[in-house]
Request: fold
Amino acid sequence: MFAFTVKRIAQGILVMLIISFIGFGIKHNFGDPVRELVGERVTPEERAQIREKLGLNDPFMVQYVRFLKNAVQGDLGRSFFFKKPVTEVIAAKAPATLELVFCASLIVVGLSIPLGIYAAIHPKKLFSRLIMGGSIIGVSMPVFLTAILLIYIFSVELGWLPSFGRGETVTVFGFWDSGLLTKEGLRHLIMPSIALSSIMLPLFIRLIRSEMMEVLESEYVKYAWAKGIKPRRVWYVHAFKNTLLPVITVGGVQLGIMVAFTILTETVFQWQGMGSMFIESVTRADTALMVSYIVVVGAIFVVVNTIVDIIYGLVNPVVRVTGRK
Amino acid sequence: MNKKILRTFAMMAALLLCFAVAAHAKTLKLAMDADPVSLDPHVQLSGGMLQYSHMVFDPLVRWAPDGSFEPRLAEKWEVVNDTTTRFHLRKGVKFHSGNEFTADDVVFTLARLKKSDDFKGLFEYFTDAKAVDANTVDLITKEPYGLVMAMATYIFPMDSKFYTGTDEKNGKPKDLILKTDYSFANFNESGTGPFMVVEREQGVKTVFNRFADYWNKDTGNVTEIIFTPISEAPTRVAALLSGDVDFIMPVPPADLERIENTEGLKLVTMSGSRIITFQLNQKRRPEFADPKVRLAMAYAYNNDGVVKKIMKGFATAAEQNSPKGYQGFNPTLSSRYDVAKAKELMKEAGYENGFEATMIAPNNRYVNDEKLAQAFVAMMSKIGIKISLKTMPKAQYWDQFDAQVADIQMIGWHSDTEDSANFFEYLYMCPDKETGRGQYNSGNYCSKEVDELTLASSSETDIAKRAEMLQQVEKILYDEAAFIPLHWQNLSWASKNNMNTQDIVNVMNFPYFGDLVIK
Reply:
């Protein structure tokens, strides 16, 4: 188990290095941040001086090594736009994104499990067909369209929910700006969470349903039936437990994807998290912030997947055995 | 006992006062597409920063809707001699810090402007200002200069006492201008303007409170502005429609009609002064050096049609750079869409069979920029010019523009001086690295006459003579088709209809929120 964990972590570090390299490579071709800093009147010579001062004229590898050196010490550079270290900017924006992802995950987990099980157990019932039909629509509708639709129905037409932003936030633990503790904050969370969950929810319903149906066909479930165990126990203990394994794997990957999907949701709702920050940093060519976002999200991916793999190893010994060799 | 009664009375009085204030408190929830990059007005010369400056600082004079100058911190002014203009400053004006506003602050501000990368170009004709006494200051130019008053609209006096000294946080002078890092001025302000910044989270929210000691007590009743940047246009509109905000700018063209037809909302639009153009590079494409070819292209481009179809009427078709109201606006230049004439000109020039050319345009800089470029390509194909178009985000575009990678390049220009000569200086004078003239002339158009007239106009102080020169330049550019003019983008603001939005907005797009009255 220890060797397995160490190996996974080493792989994670390698992946992070590759991500940072690619991120840095993109940055290098992303236009000139100085353009965004100055007005139209500033002459090319003055712009060149500013670039020189910022160290943007150095060769690619020199800049990359400098970046790595600083990154190891926890310094990812400075944001030109915010005029602060990017770690500070990202730390300030992360709670918004993580809370959004958390709420969306709650919706996904809370709804997909009962709906998926129901659709698997009673595949012929009308409600199951409605669930499956609805999930197709959900999967095929782009997030930003869902978001705009929600805004137009619930904010503009009905006036029930606020159309943008996070509302009132409270600072907890001295650094975490939370919207979960105020009524306004929660009201602001509803629509973005639904929009963000709209892609994952149908996917999970379908996944749970198909896995569950497969398990229900397996020998040991048949054996359980033969033993005369109560249907509830067969469904929820024998069958569902074995459905979970693939769901955990996919769930880990999807959680990472969800963080990335916040880009769209946050932009539409003017949600001040890492996603909208990333889009803005791209349009402003605020390169340090761009690269850091890519690295941070990459790190979240790697960490989540490593944890999932380790849990998976615990749950399913087969993985551990092949991992050992 | 007495003390207790006294205390009760004091509390009641305080409570009453609170109610009285509450009754008058007017909050404006404002949403724009972006928020100012800094609290330091000299850090960037951009529309957003000037909008901010008009809220927190106050200029010496400002533009009135009729194009005249309205006294602000300067009450009166007079021309002393060819190179000196004397400003008599308003007395009893206070900065947000509580310091008294004096002539020294104007001297300090001008000196700082001349240090700013972005502003020093505008003020290159000025020497240091001279304080005559506490309330009188002379602006002195190196040579006679026709735009002294226009430049005075850019002088937003900063609190010299507040911005002098060493900042404890970074050990650097407080008046340092820094674009990419912490500086005192980037995070603190003390101006004389109607609003003070009380809370700011960059990119999220800025809260302004009305400055209690603002010199002009007779105008505006907004006590608090909560400003949220909302970059997505549909979200911005939805926020207004749902009542989450009271005032938005700009309004996307697609939603103009909807807002106009919504009860309780008010839409104000105005023809703007940003000209959108295509430049034809004569150095890259020898065909473009022939005025006949350029004229043919001008004849083949249907500005009116584009304004109607693509811009949905939300622009004003242009035949020249200067919008109406500018000194250089030449009323004799008219629309000239005529494909038959264009074909004839191509034949005369010897390009009956046309030729090929490349073109670049941004896709997120101007309203509908990509579609405009595509329409241009389609129209030029009718006279045999086959154009291969490449569009890109603005973050990449300007480097490509500078490198002149294509034969035809798109550029929009707003004159910082609200004056015609600015267009000519940057877009059509012969490119000269030394002087910086023609810096954005990627067409490499070069005409001795245009150069001479533009330079002469800058030192001409007789308005009538100056206007004549500038109009003549527009005529030359038109006759030689130095460029292809498209249109001036319109400006738009939308708000709830319980405020006097139409009175505070202007063609520069600097809404004077200090004068806003909410009923």
About this structure: Residues 16-23 of chain B have pLDDT under 50 and may be disordered. The two ends of chain B are 45 Å apart (CA to CA). Residues 2-24 of chain B form the longest helix (23 residues). The longest strand of chain B covers residues 265-280.
